[in-house]
Amino acid sequence: MNTSVASHTATASNTTTVSRTAREWIEGVLVASPVARHLGLRTVRAEVDRVDLALDFRDDLTTVPGVLHGGVLATLVDTAAAAASASGLDEADPAAGGATTHLNVTFVTAATGRHLTATAVVTYRTRSTTHSTVTVRDVDGTLVVTATATSRIFR
Fold this sequence. Notes:
alpha+beta; 6-stranded antiparallel beta sheet; two-stranded antiparallel ribbon; 8 strands
């Protein structure tokens, strides 16, 4: 399990540590899923209602030489949004699972040979639903993808 997820502490900017339950869903289920492992997704940052996931460019993930496949980017976005949704879980009100009910992805520019970071932020949360915005940027900060996602939390 990625210990950096647990190392964040509260600050004046409202950064809050995710619970053990949230960390288990993010690291033990989502980032540990077969597809996420195959893509090499990893958690960079996890706070309540915000998660950053990283993806390194690999030739075996391309559509044409040098350009990542759009499905890979959509999977990165979907996983980041699900992780942000899971970031609000806690021991007092655990989840039995979850699913993406809506995913809207806009490909802004080609992802070409660069390390990428997806940042998912929950913009609305109820006990059973989250709405998130996701951006994917390359190492230079260039916007590659914007997305919105709605996730359902099963209790």
